[in-house]
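A quick word before the example. In earlier lectures we treated sequence and structure as two separate objects. From today on, think of them as two lines of the same record. Here is MOSC domain-containing protein written that way.
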Amino acid sequence: MLETDKDFATAVVVAVNCSAEHTFSKHNRECIQLLEGLGVEGDAHLGQTVQHRSRVAVDPSQPNLRQVHLIHAELHDELRAAGFAVSAGQMGENITTRGIELLSLPTGTRLHMGDTAIVEVTGLRNPCYQLDHFQEGLLAAVLDHDEQGKLIRKAGIMGIVLTGGQVRPDDPIRVELPAGPHRPLERV
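And the structure line, produced from the sequence above:
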């Protein structure tokens, strides 16, 4: 588990991505606008209540804990080394980061980006079969198991927008850990 600000000294936004349609991949942008309590302006997943189609079908009144999807560029590096062709936005993330072990962050971590934007981490992305429609074998590549056999989801994290603002590539990311005890991320 990460414990100090030193662990995040080089944290940066690599790319920002958005799609107004419910498409698997999102388009690279020069800038995205985060809207408090809603998500990414112009993105299909914008809203106070859940916008992911499979979740809407179950209960459209659920709170949207998946307003912003973040993936660490280090995952893209790992996947490319394994023979996959992936780049920022292609796996559906809004913000691609580098220099943060996103999967190790505790629930409730706040990520400060740009001049004012703050995203609070709500949990892990639960990768689905659409990854294999994008590239065969990608779903298995983003799942692993620890020593105890517990499933590890590596396809990024989800968050909600606490404070709106613009986010651009090369923006530094300041990580604010919640008060302890820390709760590990679970799928949302």
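Notice the following. The chain has one domain: 5-176. We will return to this example when we discuss secondary structure assignment.
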